[in-house]
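Ticket #4471: structure export looks truncated?
Reporter: QA, pipeline team
Priority: medium

Steps to reproduce: submit the single chain below to the structure queue and open the exported record.
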Amino acid sequence: MERAEAEAVYDAGRERCVDVILELAASVERLTAQTLRLEERVVRLEERARQSSRTGSKPPSEDPPKTRQQRRAEARAKAKELLGRERGEPRAAGGQPGHEGAGRPLADEDQVSEFVDHYPDSCGGCGREFAEEEKLPSRRPGRRQVSELPPITLIVTEHRSHRLRCPCCKRRTAAEFPADVAASAFGPRLQAAVLTLTARNRVSRRDMSELARDLFGLNLSVGAVEAICQRGAAALAEPHQALVEAVLGSHAVNVDETGWVTAGNKRTLWTATTPTMAIFRIAQDRHRDRLQELLGPEFDGICCSDRWWAYDLIDPESRQACWSHLQRDFRFHAEGLPIQKLFGEQGLKLTSQLFHTWHSFDQHQDRTRLAAEMAPIQLELRALVDQAAPNTPKNKYHRGFANNLLKIWPALWTFVTHPDVQPTNNAAERSLRGPVIHRKLSHGTRTDDGERFIERALSASVTCRLQKRSLFAYLTNLLSAHARGDPLPTLT
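Actual output as written to the record:
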């Protein structure tokens, strides 16, 4: 407002002045509220910008690019480390000088296909040449074994169905092919190799077709690869169902989920994992209804998971929250504002003490001692979150996290008393690493049949890995038994 306009308002009288003042006050109030909203938005955006794989659930590939100052700081730290190594200060990573190496062990002689003897042509001292009759085996020869693949050729077996004429009724009868011959044009070992490369090694259908030609000299179409995958899914149906029942009947399971895509539509891949078994299920979303479908109504074990809201369905007394996720959350708050930073730093300190105590338990295996050593950590953490939980301005940015910990407090300490529970959900996350890579390479699935194949094949693959079994050998036995109609080998 210009001075002349202000003077005109003043000359207009008392009522006009009051109206203008009220208009200005309303504008100030509106602008103040808008400023507060913008400030909160800036804080949220700054928090989002600070999130990384170290402070949240983002994968390292989504970390923001480093600034020039960060790159320089890392370069200085690396140079300081290299200078320290030259002075003998810090210990370098890896094997140290004088460390006894671990070479490749030699196979037993009964496993060696061929022996080739080598003799010196002449003396290393005087140069005299050795005669053939002097080249005799020594008692302790030097040994070096070289492993090689034989030339890979297909074994093609032609089965012929002959017809015989009955001398009595003169009717001709043709022989029927055995069930395992009639089931497919490919043998169980070849089908098992295709399934192993597809499920375990994430080879696409088209690449599998090219690989079969390069490795085996076999013309295998993309459609034939898909037919083998569907045949494998059908054979795995019964063992997979038994595996699901075994996993959900365990005392404790680790549960996690990740994104999936079917025909361009968003889906969710769930896993439930134990130390020796794992199952997978593709569902519509990651809500609590899908969790109920995964676990089933009869599940009464301990569920280990992160703090995603869908898991609030589970009683905290029957749950274990992942401390690795909590550590990332405390690290996030430790990089925040002063009061928030202090809260995060104290939480990180207690988390480090917790993991140190747990690793000590791995050595002594005394659960009474574990509970006694965890008690002071529990008391300090409870005092910390109780102080951060009230709705006050200084707790604005971390009280939500603190209240969530209070809400699930028993779920933080289940591992102290339950012998089958770990303090982290790393088992489920490890089970999902391979499927995540599979999703990124294949862009998911296209049909419901493709989803069933992924569920069963990944369950068999991860379970065999956890049990240190050969997936190829298991699938070979499975497909052979399925074709003959014999009892199927189990995964439990």
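Status: closed, not a bug. The export was complete when the record was re-opened. Leaving a note from the reviewer for reference: The chain has 16 helices and seven strands.
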